[in-house]
Amino acid sequence: MSFDPALLLLVIPAAATALIAALPGTRASAYVNAGASFLTLLGALYLAWTGEERSGAYLLVDELNTIFLVLVAFVGFTTSVFSANYVAYELRSGRVTPAFLRLYHALYQALALAFNVALLSNNLGVLWVAIELATLITVVMVGIYRTHAAIEAAWKYFILASVGIALALFGTILLYMAAQAAVGPGLAAMEWTELVAHAASLQPAMLNLAFIFLLLGYGTKIGLFPLHAWLPDAHAEGPTPITAVLSGLLLNVALYALLRCKIVLAGNPAVLTPGTLMIAMGLVSVLFGAFMLYRRRDIKRLFAYSSIEHMGLITFAFGLGGPLANFAGLLHMVLHSLTKSAIFFAVGDISQVKGTQKIAEMGGLTRTDPLIGWGLVIGVAALAGLPPLGLFTSEFLLVSATISNRALLAIPLVLGLLVAVGALFLQLNAIAFGEPKGVSRKAECSYAPMFVHLAVVLIAGVALPRAIVALFETVAKLLG
């Protein structure tokens, strides 16, 4: 019996979690965290390079989850590098204790394990358990500062996420019940590959009901309006590296679960079109997130609402369906994760340098701290979809697909994009330009992760590699 290399993506973070838990609260835990994240990235890249698809009762490797695995591993590694200096500064400033280091880095690897279990699982029950585990871990990490605001945000996140995950559990049970008649009872009725193979013979009424609950349940984790209430508080009060992980990874893993369910429904012509619900929730989220950007006073809350807008765009794209819209959704998902995590890297450095998250107390960053300031400017330009940065390409493709398929929907979609652009640059002007505000303090800023992400986003906008284009095109057809 040969060892499956995909299991390395589970073994490495599991072993790292145990090792970090045994280490004293020193900087060694940061090195183990970064080293394990790098090994996990190598494992994900190896899976992508081999391109072998395989499935079993519990394990699934295909082109769809390979995209997510590489993205999660890459952002996880760069964020672990950023975390090393960020958390060390928090220790020196007295905001946390040495025990915090061990707990933080151990939980970070446990979270990576939960993500990889969710993405590699061929069993819808195991997928649900992994996302629930990721939720519980991030709840602890959001409240890890133990301030009143952090604990309140953690509890709010826990309560709302628990409601969402309960709805997703009910949807999962309904999906299992719909599969029993065609597949038979037992584990087979819980396997994604079996569900897809027998999709045409599954009970349509039960599938319709299951998808509604799954959309509401996993939509809570994605941050779609009106299920988003936990997201701004969790982003604002947790450690900034975890904010990057929440915005760049957790939302995508929940989206992955929803896409798996959509593929099952796409194989049954008798069910209601799942795309209509996704289009509605996605478009409303775009408009809501865009208008909410104008009144933010906290820089992390500002970009939290931006995440709501962009996850709405991605959900809208996958709901619209078709090769072009699905390609745009995949590209936007990847580039949004890279861009938003780069922005939160800049925000983390800004909050340590300025000692505040209030937009009114920071200004002139391009003059006082040029690397951070201009990195933020480039990140916001990418987020706004300006050429030649990659998000321009994905948004252009999405608008084109919308005009081709449902032209009237292009009006509110473009309106949301324009409103968001105006809000982002209005806020950016107050942060990056003008007269300097506040007193800049010395901090060990990690510039490399931010600029690496921005460089990838720029390259994707100028010349997307053919291999990635081919992979995205194949997955876009799979998504229906």
Kindly state the number of beta strands.
Answer: 2
Q: Shape from CA axes? A: globular
Number of helices: 19
Q: In sequence order, what are the helices and strands, one letter per element?
A: HHEEHHHHHHHHHHHHHHHHH
Describe it.
The chain has helices at 8-22, 28-50, 63-92, 98-120, 124-142, 148-183, 192-197, 204-222, 230-237, 240-266, 274-292, 299-320, 323-354, 365-368, 370-383, 390-405, 410-432, 447-462, 466-478, and strands spanning 54-55, 60-61. It is an all-alpha fold. It has a domain at 273-480. A hairpin with a 4-residue loop joins strand 1 and strand 2 (60-61). Helix 8 packs antiparallel against helix 10. It is globular, with a radius of gyration of 21 Å. The relative contact order is 0.10.
Secondary-structure topology with pairs:
Elements: H1 8-22, H2 28-50, E1 54-55, E2 60-61, H3 63-92, H4 98-120, H5 124-142, H6 148-183, H7 192-197, H8 204-222, H9 230-237, H10 240-266, H11 274-292, H12 299-320, H13 323-354, H14 365-368, H15 370-383, H16 390-405, H17 410-432, H18 447-462, H19 466-478
Antiparallel strand pairs: 1-2
Helix pairs in contact: 1-2, 1-4, 2-3, 2-4, 3-4, 3-10, 3-13, 3-18, 4-5, 4-10, 5-6, 5-10, 6-8, 6-9, 8-10, 9-10, 9-12, 10-12, 10-13, 11-12, 11-17, 12-13, 13-15, 13-16, 13-18, 13-19, 15-17, 15-18, 16-18
